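This part of the workshop introduces the protein records we will be handling. Each record describes a single protein and holds just a pair of labelled lines. Instead of coordinates, the fold is spelled out as a row of discrete tokens. To make this concrete, we reproduce a full record directly below:
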Amino acid sequence: MQTYLHALLEQRKNTALYRHRVIHNSPQTPLLVIKGQSYLSFCSNDYLGLANHPRLKIALQHSIDEYGVGSGASHLVTGHTHIHHLLEKELAAYTGCDSALLFSTGYMANIGVITALMGRHDAIFLDKLNHASLVDAALLSRAKMIRYPHNDMQALDRLLSKTTAQHKLIITDGVFSMDGDIANLPHIVKLAHIHDAWVMVDDAHGLGVIGETGRGILEFYGLEVPILMGTLGKAFGVFGAFVAGSTVLIDTLIQSARSYMYTTAMPPAVAQAIRTSLIVSDEESWRRQYLHELIGYFRAATTHMPLIDSVTPIQAIILGDAEKALAVSAALYQRGLLVTAIRPPTVPQGTARLRITLSASHTKKQINTLITALRDVLS
């Protein structure tokens, strides 16, 4: 086994696909301390800058005094506290759905929903750029997995018309995590009606960020879908995930979603911090407004760069091969900036990139530092 694993690792190193973890000693802010040196980070999904917010920290601390640290059991045994229950009701209200269900991570939420609802005689239609957790969930469900080219509605229509599956589920990211563009949800919903299919949206990178009040892609388009998944460790700055939909959907997931049934509930103190985050994100709406101001500012200054079209905090600069992406990322690191190089298999071959993420915690001065450094290393 050791010989085999060494060979796998060497192959990754030789193809510039080996990954390293960045170890820092600081809260999640635009400035991270690595080996005693401060680096300006453009890698975090903390879009609203709430991960180090004082009100969230106080909520967490006070709730630990009341509920302790761990939940101690799964939700279906003794892990489901009053705090969890209140949070689920508040998430349902936040998203405009009847009910919501907490999961420990977005990955577990996607696995739980898709494997609970779909089986051997069903078909799942996935955008080619959907998150890996959606692909894995479709594989685990044993349904027929059909992938359509990114945001290609004609292809999706054609594929839907060919299937004879008992149930059909169309799944899309709301905001695509590596490109930062937004799904063509109105057309997807229209096709779902025509072909009698269900729709599931993974809005991990949209909730809190897009839409007039930050309610994500559904508010952005003014639409409803049967199944909505959202995460709580990105724009909301804490941890965990949830699924929202009808009461009968949530009751079905409580009974059947294995990644919900067979895992320990998140700590109650974390749930309390999330409750506070929902309030703060609404009360401090300037964060979302300022974030979009920064996005426009950054894009206006980088029109000459190979940026993917995106109105979200995810700004991807396509560099092509993995070696070049790593070299540019390393050059930025030498200048005191953290910008992640994203390589296959996370993105398709030939599309290795810098994935820049902006936060309401960034200043325009920091954005200018990034722009100047990008001009230097890309020239």
About this structure: The domain at 18-48+285-378 is CATH 3.90.1150.10 (Aspartate Aminotransferase, domain 1). The chain has two domains: 18-48+285-378, 54-283. Residues 268-283 form the longest helix (16 residues).
